[in-house]
C-alpha cells in the first residue's frame, strides 16, 4: 500500500463542470445529502472546496453556512484547506466533497478539519472508489493527466480507518454508481438494482457520514460499592483480646525468685 502523502501536486477541481459526468456526480451526492440534511443540527456549517460549495444545503436546519475555496465564485471565505482561518471547535457540520482525491497530504487535511469540528459534530465525505470502473480507467495512460483520473483515489475502508484514528464513528457508508454512465441511466440503474448488494463494493463513488466522539480523560467512578461482610463487634473484640494476652505471655516471661 502506497503512503497517502505524496510530493506530487494534484490539480484540484473547483467546479463540477471540470469533471467527466460532473453534473451527474453532483446530482447523486445532492440526493443523498438531502436525506441527511433534516438530521443535522447546529449553528455553523462549513463546505470545504469548490465542489462542496456547489452542492445545495438549503433544506438543512443550520442557517449559517460558509463556503471556503480559492477559485469558485460561490465562496464566502478565500483560504487554503490546510490552514483554515477559524478557531477550534467552530463548526457543527463539515461537507467534504472529493477533497481527499486531490490532496497531496490527506492526513494533514483531515487533522485540520478535525481541529475546527465541534464535539459530536458531523463530517460528510465523498470520493471516488479505486476498485471501480472509474478506478480502472485511471490506469490508462492517456487519462492520467485529465480529471477526474488525475487525482489519487482511496478506498472507503481506508478513509474509515483514518476517521477511526481521529475518534470518529462512521454511522453511514454508501458505495454506489456501479456503472457511472450518464447516458441511458435508467437501464444502468435497473441493472445495478438487479445485482443487489453483491456488487456494491465496486461502486464508483462513496458517501460517508461520520460523527466526532469525545471521551472524557478521567474515568467516572461507579456509584455502587461492595458491602463488607457483617461481623459482631463483641466477638471480634474478645478474639482480639485473647490473642493479645497470649502474645504477651509468650513474649515477656515473668522471672520468679525463690524465697530463702
Automatic annotation (TrEMBL):
A Pfam family assignment: Methyltransf_11
Keywords: Membrane, Methyltransferase, Transferase, Transmembrane, Transmembrane helix
Organism: Vibrio kanaloae
EC number assigned by the record: 2.1.1.-
Signal peptide annotation: none
Domain Methyltransferase type stretches: 74-125
Protein's name in the database: SAM-dependent methyltransferase
GO biological process, alphabetically ordered: methylation
Residue ranges crossing the lipid bilayer per the database entry: 121-142, 187-209
Upper lineage: Bacteria, Pseudomonadati, Pseudomonadota, Gammaproteobacteria, Vibrionales
InterPro entries membership: Methyltransf_11, SAM-dependent_MTases_sf
Recorded GO MF terms: S-adenosylmethionine-dependent methyltransferase activity
Amino acid at each position: 500500500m502506497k503512503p497517502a502523502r505524496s510530493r506530487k501536486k494534484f490539480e484540484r477541481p473547483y467546479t463540477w463542470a471540470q469533471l467527466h459526468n460532473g453534473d451527474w456526480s453532483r446530482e447523486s451526492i445532492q440526493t443523498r445529502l438531502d436525506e441527511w440534511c433534516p438530521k443535522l443540527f447546529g449553528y455553523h456549517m462549513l463546505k470545504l472546496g469548490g465542489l462542496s460549495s456547489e452542492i445545495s444545503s438549503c433544506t438543512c436546519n443550520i442557517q449559517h453556512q460558509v463556503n471556503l475555496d480559492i477559485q469558485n465564485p460561490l465562496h464566502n471565505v478565500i483560504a487554503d484547506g490546510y490552514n483554515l482561518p477559524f478557531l477550534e471547535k467552530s463548526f457543527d457540520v463539515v461537507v467534504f466533497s472529493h477533497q481527499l482525491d486531490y490532496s497531496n497530504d490527506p492526513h494533514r487535511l483531515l487533522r485540520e478539519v478535525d481541529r475546527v469540528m465541534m464535539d459530536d459534530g458531523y463530517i460528510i465525505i465523498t470520493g471516488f472508489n479505486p476498485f471501480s470502473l472509474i478506478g480502472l480507467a485511471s490506469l490508462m495512460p492517456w487519462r492520467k493527466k485529465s480529471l477526474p483520473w488525475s487525482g489519487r483515489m482511496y478506498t472507503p475502508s481506508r478513509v474509515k480507518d483514518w476517521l477511526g484514528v481521529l475518534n470518529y464513528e462512521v454511522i453511514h457508508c454508501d458505495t454506489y454508481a456501479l456503472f457511472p454512465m450518464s447516458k441511458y441511466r435508467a437501464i444502468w440503474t435497473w441493472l445495478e438494482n438487479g445485482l443487489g448488494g453483491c456488487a456494491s463494493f465496486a461502486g464508483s463513488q462513496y458517501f460517508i457520514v461520520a460523527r466526532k466522539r469525545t471521551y472524557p480523560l478521567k474515568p467516572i467512578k461507579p456509584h455502587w460499592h461492595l458491602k463488607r461482610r457483617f461481623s459482631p463487634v463483641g466477638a471480634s473484640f474478645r478474639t482480639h483480646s485473647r490473642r493479645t494476652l497470649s502474645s504477651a505471655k509468650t513474649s515477656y516471661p515473668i522471672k520468679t525468685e525463690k524465697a530463702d
